[in-house]
Amino acid sequence: MTLTLTPSEAEQILADNFAPWVLDLGLKVTEIGAQHAVLRLPWSARLAREGGALSGQALMAAADTATVIAVSAARGAYVPMTTVQQSTTFQRPITDTATLIEATLTKLGRRMAFTDITMTAEGSGEVAARASTVYALLG
Fold first, then answer.
1. pLDDT value at residue 139
2. Residue 6: phi, psi to the nearest 5?
3. Which of 13, 41, 80, 95 is exposed most, by the fewest CB atoms within 10 A?
4. What pTM, to 2 d.p., does this model score?
5. Residue of 49, 42, 48, 6 lying closest to 24 (CA atoms)
6. 1: pLDDT confidence band, cut at 50, 70 and 90?
């Protein structure tokens, strides 16, 4: 049986389980399904690095956060989990626009979860970054 959450339940997971600085990113859950989650990272000059492009640190934090939401959706609820590995490649800069972060589960086991994440500048359709994550499920 595949479980999932509503976007508002996923938003509550964000509010209840993430550090204030992660919440300051302004991430919003725009889509959620049994094997994926899409979060929107709004553009903010505060998140830009020298030269005006969105910082890699902000994208990596958003990818990590999207993983938690995707795993929670697949399990039907939040359970304690932790990042074991994250690898990110940056393909092009994002400037002056929001970013869509889509995390897709590639394997969900009892104790481990694996995801692929695509980060795209909203409206462009061009992938700006990709990530993969491995999570240990603690509960």
1. 78
2. -85, 160
3. 80
4. 0.94
5. 42
6. very low
